[in-house]
Amino acid sequence: MFLRRNRRVVDGESYEYWSLVETYRTAKGPRQRVVAQLGKRPGFEAAHQRQWADLDRLLEGAPVGPTQLSLPAPEIAPAEPEPIWAEVNLAGLRVERVREFGQVYLSLSLWRRLGLHTLLRSVLPAGQEDVPWDLTACILTLARFCGQKSELHVAESWYAQSALDDLLNVTPFQVNESRLYRGLDAILPHKDALCAHLQRRYESLFGVRFEFLLYDVTSTYFEGKAEGNEKAARGYSRDQRPDCKQVNIGLVVTPEGLPVGYEVFAGNRADVTTVEEMVRLMEEKYGRAERIWVMDRGMVSEDNIDFLRGRGARYLVGTPKRRLRQFEAQLLEEKDWAEVQPGVEVKLIPHPDQASGEMYVLCKSAARQEKEAAMLALQCQRLKKELVKIDAALQARPLKDTGAIERRIGRWMGKYPAAERLIEARLVRNAAGAACGLELTDRAGPSEWARHAHGAYLLRTNCTELDPVALWKWYMQLTQVEDAFRISKSDLLMRPVFHQKTERVEAHILICFLSLVLWRTLENWMKCRGLGTCARQLIEEVAQVRRVDVVLPVRAQGEQTLTEVRLRVVTRPEQRAADLLDRLGLQLPTAPRCIVSGRRSGSIRDERGCGEVVR
Fold first, then answer.
1. What is the pLDDT of residues 324-368, one digit of tens each?
2. What number of H helices and E strands is found in the chain?
3. Whole-prediction pTM value?
4. Exposed/middle/buried for 9, CB within 10 Å: 0-12, 13-18, 19+?
5. What pLDDT does 127 receive?
6. Is the pLDDT of residue 65 over 50?
7. 279: number of Cβ within 10 Å
8. Domain boundaries, the chain
9. Closest among 453, 411, 449, 402 to 430, alpha carbons compared
10. Residue 205 pLDDT more than 50?
């Protein structure tokens, strides 16, 4: 049930009055009916605005007074200076309408403190829609932040089970699948404005300078044929789903892990071909000042290096493993190594061509060496096992036509390419010329080089920095991009994509991008307050906070009439969660809000007076 404001114009003069309206379901959909006409409510509008004024300030981090969330309903008389005591029938006390509060309150605080509500309100002007598009975009992003998979589930279940109806003043009956889909369509054209706004907020909140930009590419796959998406195609799947169509997503983040921008590419597009387009887009948005681009070896080609150098950009990139062989002598030397951390050493090597202005950073890791050696040993073991099976089959039944056997050997060699370089398999023939077995030998040269190359990798840069330790630390910041991909896919459920149209898919990715922004903002907020960077733990702790309605049957002193008072309260978090919120400076609403009170005499209850009022 909710209150509806009605307005009538008679003889040019406007009159307002209020109705108590109930929404109910029918076979043809939801319908509404008037339960009671409440007439004019003097001062109701002013009280209604006042009761949420402090909530807005609280969500945006502004200081509030001790009565910050005392939300008296207009039906209740103003509190007297002296307390009013009443008897409570404990046998009739009950708790109703338990809703999720902690997660949505935290995510809404992040949304407001980033100023996204202000920006979207300006670029999405209100029209005749029941729910403003900026609120629809907010609902979509908060739902994704809270781990909701689809708009259908948000509309049918999750929104009604959360406390967002209180926080956003949008009833569950106003949130439906069609409105959420239209909200996706409305927000997509403003992607560039959102990215530009976030850049300004990063600068003001965390002092980000955008001197370093980290770039990498991931993919997300579709459920369904995706015939309406021109970018959906089969390609190299990082999700181990080569059977599904996908799109590639290029993401740019700062060393702090804050997402700066992204682009959606065709699913069959090679990573190395996306660099020029992404660099141009970032320069259009943030200027062509000297900036250091950090990229993994999958993005590197000589054309890309020439492109970056031609635009005056600095770069620090990984190199293909095969180039490491050119620096075998330096790798085997024991001098000039600098220890970055226990088990990791780096060395600066001049480029053979001094005019290029480039340098190489040779790196080796003991832990990585052990891991790569174990992986190679496992590949060799599996390949030899399959080759031994082929040998046994040939010994049992020699074959003159060896075409099928050679194809079988080639198939297994192709499956284990690293082991294939170390193992040589030769067919053994009998006196009749038939293949009767396999002779397996280890290649000594490649085996020796593989042993030295394990755990070693090479970086390439044209930066003026001469400290290999600093260069290595810059490159290791690429883990921020990988972690962003992991959060987007695991925590924010970006995959799989159920939308089929190109625009809807890009809008879905934009919402996932905004929810990633909230997540990374929370991590940096925690880091600034000395709480580490594990946002996942904080979210799990805060998720235990609920919003409940406590119904109290009361009787005032000197009266026989029973009154039923419904108080909307927020549960107190556990001490651990309360300490975390206190360190963040995030206050939860503490004072109860009286929703409605009703009177009953004896066992007769006035249903119209006791009906719950939810705005």
1. 888 888 888 888 899 998 999 999 998 877 777 889 999 999 999
2. 22, 20
3. 0.78
4. exposed
5. 81
6. no
7. 23
8. 68-98+545-610, 327-461
9. 402
10. yes
